[in-house]
Write a structure and sequence with these properties.
This is Tyrosine-protein kinase. It is found in: Cytoplasm. Keywords: ATP-binding, Cytoplasm, Kinase, Nucleotide-binding, Phosphoprotein, SH2 domain, SH3 domain, Transferase, Tyrosine-protein kinase. It catalyses: L-tyrosyl-[protein] + ATP = O-phospho-L-tyrosyl-[protein] + ADP + H(+). GO terms for molecular function: ATP binding; non-membrane spanning protein tyrosine kinase activity; signaling receptor binding. This protein is α+β, with helices and mostly antiparallel strands. It folds into four domains: about 1-45 and about 125-215, SHC Adaptor Protein; about 55-115, SH3 type barrels, CATH 2.30.30.40; about 230-305, 2-Layer Sandwich (Phosphorylase Kinase, domain 1), CATH 3.30.200.20; about 310-494, Transferase(Phosphotransferase), domain 1. The protein has 13 helices and 17 strands. The chain has a five-stranded antiparallel beta sheet with strand order 4-3-2-1-5, with no helix packed on it. The chain has a five-stranded mixed beta sheet with strand order 9-8-7-6-10, with helices on one face. β3 and β4 (about 100-105) form a beta hairpin. α8 packs antiparallel against α10, α8 (about 325-345) runs antiparallel to α13 and α10 packs antiparallel against α12. The longest helix has 20 residues, at about 325-345. The termini are far apart.
Length: about 500
């Protein structure tokens, strides 16, 4: 009624002002803007939010579940005593619930004030006017959502921000000389809670109902594997391959790891996130275990368990590898087949299976690595037209000539890996160029049987090198046959 009369009968404005006093500025009374306008902006904050300080009291803003023994699980509202800052984490002791300490991401906590104000669902400390508007206009909040925050322009005062349809109204809550709080002079309250209770019941005085506290915006869900680069120290370069450099490193100063440093110039980084999701979903004792990734910023790190004896190709050429008996060589091959059988079940194509991409542990445990990463190499690098870049000597003819990769092209590569194992790391088709190798294969040439290779294993190699992909055995069959040969040669290895 008031806006209608004021607009239609403007000559009675003096009379209307007597009945409905116009809103005063923020520092005295709440501003009552017209429907088409917003309140006057408050000046921006003078200083940004400061990082957590030592021995600081914090409050958990969101639930957080620990993902390792070093982290601390907290629930929203838990009070924490921060002992120190550790990169993107605080090391804190929980004051509520069972006593315990650990790392909590800083995105999940906020500084707590000594009074209980910080525990109120409508109180948001340390946010700006702009941030308040973004929160209240988010899909999680409806008209009538409100919050109280410290005033940016008047130290010791507060601001009440209320969503009104597609706009947000801001009202100054001032502090009187005796410590009372007021929106309008003459209406003093002893606490913010008492003030809000009054205006919830008498919302017409500020022309906006206060229906429900603002719903806080959840931070982006922290990926189980995503870690900052700062957590890793690179110590010794182990080698270089199609996918970048491999380093021996340390995670958080204590956990030994292998770090693959991806060259962004060589990789299709747009597909990296999808491929990393695939890596995270794979769990098998014959696959290299993923510890973490650093995919935000460059370079990209893929962090895995560290296998002390390095890759299988280099290990076979070492004095220790040269001393392996045929049954132990067969055990290595069988472990690779087991890992590839797991990938086969999940329809994952490796594309670059070779002894250089199998890693060896202290107990002669062999694990397949780099599965699927060949998909991320740029086409002009990993293609037949680029000459030596494509591993032609390990690649099935249909993949080398027409880029038709499948589980059966991986089986062809496994046959070449068997040759590497029983020739103690010798390069296949030695003395031939890639072009000559492809020509000879298309004419029917196959690698000869290495001296240490049992006849039964060489027959499996030839099966892997069938011209027709459909005639090549599945990895599950190869694993079974290798197991049977292994049990005959050396039952103790099974």
């Amino acid at each position: 009624m008031e806006p209608f009369l004021r607009k239609r009968l403007t000559f009675l404005s003096f009379f209307w002002d007597k009945i409905w006093p116009a809103g005063a500025p923020d520092d005295s009374m709440p501003r009552f803007p017209d429907a088409g306008t917003d309140a006057e902006p408050e000046p921006p904050a003078a200083e940004p939010r400061s990082p957590p300080a030592r021995a600081q009291l914090f409050r958990a803003l969101y639930d957080f579940t620990a993902r390792c023994a070093a982290e601390l699980s907290v629930r929203r509202g838990d009070r924490l005593y921060a002992l120190k800052e550790d990169g993107h984490y605080i090391f804190a002791r929980r004051l509520s619930g069972p006593p315990s300490a650990g790392l909590v991401p800083v995105a999940y906590v906020a500084k707590a004030t000594p009074e209980t104000l910080s525990d109120q669902p409508w109180y948001f400390s340390g946010i700006s006017r702009t941030e308040a508007q973004q929160l209240l206009l988010s899909p999680a909040n409806a008209p009538g959502a409100f919050l109280v925050r410290p005033s940016e322009s008047s130290h010791g005062d507060y601001s009440l921000s209320v969503r009104a349809q597609a706009k947000v109204r801001h009202y100054r809550i001032s502090t009187a000389a005796d410590g009372g709080l007021y929106l309008q002079k003459g209406r003093l309250f002893s606490s913010l809670e008492e003030l809000l209770t009054y205006y919830k019941a008498n919302w017409k005085l500020i022309q906006n109902p206060l229906l429900q506290p603002c719903v806080p915006q959840q931070p982006p869900r922290q990926d189980e594997w995503e870690r900052p680069h700062s957590e890793f120290t690179l110590r010794r370069r182990l080698g270089e391959g199609y996918f970048g450099e491999v380093w021996e490193g340390v995670w958080r100063g204590s956990v030994p790891v292998a770090v693959k440093v991806i060259r962004s110039a060589d990789m299709k980084l747009a597909d990296l996130a999808k491929e990393i999701q695939t890596l995270k979903s794979l769990r098998h004792e014959r696959l290299i275990r993923l510890h973490a990734v650093c995919s935000t910023g460059e370079p990209v790190y893929i962090v895995t368990e560290l296998m002390r004896k390095g890759n299988l190709q280099a290990f076979l050429g070492s004095p220790e590898g040269q001393a392996l008996s045929p049954p132990l060589l067969l055990s290595c091959a069988r472990q690779v087949a087991e890992g590839m059988s797991y990938l086969e079940e999940r329809r994952i194509v490796h594309r670059d299976l070779a002894a250089r991409n199998v890693l060896v542990g202290d107990d002669l445990a062999c694990k397949v690595a780099d599965f699927g990463l060949a998909r991320l190499l740029k086409d002009d690098i990993y293609s037949p037209s680029s000459g030596s870049k494509i591993p032609v000597k390990w690649t099935a003819p249909e993949a080398a000539n027409y880029r038709i990769f499948s589980q059966k092209s991986d089986v062809w590569s496994f046959g070449v890996l068997l040759y590497e194992v029983f020739s103690y790391g010798q390069c296949p088709y030695e003395g031939m160029s890639n072009h000559e190798t492809l020509q000879q294969i298309m004419r029917g040439y196959r690698l000869p049987r290495p001296a240490a290779c049992p006849a039964e294993v060489y027959l499996l190699m030839l099966e892997c090198w069938q011209d027709s992909p459909e005639e090549r055995p599945a990895f599950a069959v190869l694993q079974e046959k290798l197991g049977a040969i292994c049990s005959c040669l050396h039952p103790a290895l099974m």
